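Q: What residues go here?
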């Protein structure tokens, strides 16, 4: 059945390349969405406590939240595309069996983003609009829950028929949460939320220290809070990783593997945060790098679980049919180069203007920006031409 449900055209390039891209891009996605959950939780806490330093940082994190949600949504599209190329039977089956929630998900994410933005824009120190931050956090967590259910349904094809037609009667409502593993979700969402946020706080302090008007005392305090959150969450990360190993692991014969990964990550992260007591501000960029590596391990672990589950039915990315379609490869390649250049330019502008007193950027960045936007313009033009050509001549 899984083979029958694959795209009959096959993948347009070596399937394993999509698998690697899926794992790597998911790291970005999960960092931003969980970081948003951490930042949102911290803002709510800060606005409730109203301590001056906490409030100052709370305002920064209230601004960080919608930014991170936006980046999380955008970077979620990349793994979504790759998952649809090599795991299409799973993805579409999971989305159909959970149809009501996968459509609702879009509105949940829209609401989560808009409310976080409202709170950043209009929320005030006396706690006005705090409800919007709380509602946003609830919606974002719910979005994570839906993602997790989709993932859990997708890796259990042996149960699809039973969920589709329980007792032989077809259920088209798509309203049931058919599969989930709460420890896995705790590991993936709130705990990674704490760790993403911890690394981000240290990074923010590291970045802001370069400003002419930097307040070293405040930045040291901020990085210290990030480090302490990391120290507090890392052991829990290990504990819930073990629960995950002993709940989901046995089903796929991966208990020891998941347990080992969770322990190594938990101990490694704890040791890292512990060792940065003296100069947490200086460690900011390193903290983000270490956290990215940890997420890469988690992303690979998720992929191993999926591969092992599907191997039981002889479905493997290694034998996914493909025909190299150089047109698609070229489109994808050039779009990536153009897109990455424009994004790099935006990052340079944000980075440099945030550091200079009057918001200026270097001549080099400006020159690079001109090239990147010209490439984007040319690429738009090319797309219009391809569209015209295919509508007029290929009919
Ligand atoms: C903004 C709220 C969101 C949250 C909190 C969230 C959270 C998560 C979590 C926790 C997972 C991992 C689930 C697991 O392994 O058990 C996940 C996976 C995923 N997310 Fe999101 N997500 C959000 C939005 C989005 C959006 C808007 C997209 C697409 C545009 C997206 C695309 C994906 C994809 C494709 C996967 C699975 C990749 C795979 O199967 O390997 N997410 N997300």
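A:
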């Amino acid at each position: 059945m899984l083979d029958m449900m694959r795209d009959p055209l096959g993948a347009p390039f070596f399937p394993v390349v999509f698998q690697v891209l899926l794992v790597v891009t998911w790291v970005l996605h999960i960092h931003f969405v969980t970081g948003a959950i951490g930042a949102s939780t911290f803002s709510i806490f800060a606005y409730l406590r109203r301590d001056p330093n906490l409030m100052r940082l709370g305002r920064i994190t209230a601004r960080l939240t919608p930014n991170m949600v936006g980046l999380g949504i955008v970077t979620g599209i990349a793994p979504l595309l790759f998952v649809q190329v090599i795991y299409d039977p799973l993805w579409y089956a999971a989305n159909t069996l959970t149809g009501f929630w996968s459509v609702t998900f879009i509105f949940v994410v829209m609401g989560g983003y808009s409310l976080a933005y409202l709170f950043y824009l209009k929320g005030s120190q006396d706690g006005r609009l705090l409800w919007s931050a709380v509602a946003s956090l609830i919606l974002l967590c719910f979005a994570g829950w839906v993602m997790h259910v989709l993932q859990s349904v997708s890796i259990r094809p042996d149960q699809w028929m039973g969920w589709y037609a329980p007792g032989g009667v077809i259920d088209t409502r798509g309203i049931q949460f058919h599969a989930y593993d709460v420890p896995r979700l705790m590991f993936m969402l709130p705990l990674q939320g704490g760790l993403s946020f911890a690394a981000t706080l240290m990074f923010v302090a590291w970045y802001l220290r370069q400003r002419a008007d930097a307040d070293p005392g405040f930045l040291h305090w901020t990085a210290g809070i990030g480090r302490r959150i990391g120290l507090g969450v890392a052991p829990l990360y290990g504990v819930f990783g073990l629960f995950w190993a002993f709940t989901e692991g046995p089903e796929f014969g991966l208990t020891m593997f998941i347990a080992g990964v969770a322990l190594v990550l938990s101990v490694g992260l704890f040791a890292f945060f512990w060792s940065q007591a003296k100069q947490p501000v200086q460690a900011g960029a390193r903290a983000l790098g270490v956290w990215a590596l940890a997420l890469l391990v988690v992303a690979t672990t998720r992929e191993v679980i999926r591969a092992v589950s599907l191997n039981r039915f002889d479905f493997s990315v290694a034998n996914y049919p493909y025909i190299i379609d150089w047109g698609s490869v070229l489109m994808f390649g050039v779009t990536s180069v153009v897109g990455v250049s424009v994004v790099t330019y935006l990052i340079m502008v944000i980075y440099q203007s945030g550091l200079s007193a009057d918001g200026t950027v270097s001549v080099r960045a400006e020159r690079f920006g001109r090239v990147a936007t010209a490439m984007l313009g040319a690429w738009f033009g090319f797309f219009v031409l391809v569209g015209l050509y295919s509508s007029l001549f290929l009919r």
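A: Context that may help when evaluating the design: Residues 15-49 form the longest helix (35 residues). The mean pLDDT is 95.
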